[in-house]
Amino acid sequence: MLERILQWDRDALVFINGLGIERYDHFWLTVTNIYTWVPLFMFFFVLIFWKYKRKEAIYVTLTVVALIGFILMATDLTKGYFARLRPNNDEAVRIMLRIVHDPSTFSFFSGHAASSFSITSIIVLFLYKRVKWCWVFYIWPLLFALSRMYLGVHYPSDIIVGALVGILTAFAFYNLYQRIIVPYLGLTRP
């Protein structure tokens, strides 16, 4: 069963990566770069400070920062534990791929998927009652995660697990915020 899943994983990656067109490589390299998204992160925090009173906005921001720290640590620990080679570093898979980016760290699970889905999910949880269109923010993690397969550096399972870990972690941190910070600040929630 595991071998069938791993075979599907390789085949799906080869298919997705094979859809790549050289003239779009620069676009996907830009999408995968975390610094490209700094204006979006700034926008997230502007929205938080616009939609929340200052004191609560600070606590919301600290919760998001704590989530980011946690997800980065969890990603590093998991990658070190599983030590799964990236497809671009596995010679049996590499020959079937268009390698556009060539990192040497481990693959499982995707830090790009985990961090982008966790950040987006917690931002949406904090803003969905105040900014009705905030669901559009999910375009970022979808593009960000897809870029990793386009570039040949992550298997689909790395992306799927990373996204699930990110979303679940965001819900956990949001729940902690509601249970600990909201009462501490003396706020009432419906």
Notes on the protein architecture:
By secondary structure, this protein is mostly helical. The protein has one domain: Vanadium-containing Chloroperoxidase, domain 2, CATH 1.10.606. Helices cover 68% and strands 0% of the residues. It has 8 helices and no strands. It has helices at 2-18, 25-32, 38-51, 54-82, 91-94, 111-127, 139-150, 156-184. The longest helix has 29 residues, at 54-82. 32% of the residues are buried.
Query: How can the largest sheet be summarized?
Result: none
Number of helices in the DSSP assignment:
8
Tell me what the CATH architecture is.
Answer: Orthogonal Bundle
User: What would you report as the Rg, rounded to the nearest angstrom?
Assistant: 18 Å
Shape: elongated
Q: Which features would summarize this protein structure in a list?
A:
single chain, about 190 residues, mainly alpha, Vanadium-containing Chloroperoxidase, domain 2, about 0% strand, elongated
How do you describe this structure in short?
By secondary structure, this protein is mainly alpha-helical. It contains 8 helices and no strands.
List the helices and strands and how they pair.
Blueprint: H1 2-18, H2 25-32, H3 38-51, H4 54-82, H5 91-94, H6 111-127, H7 139-150, H8 156-184
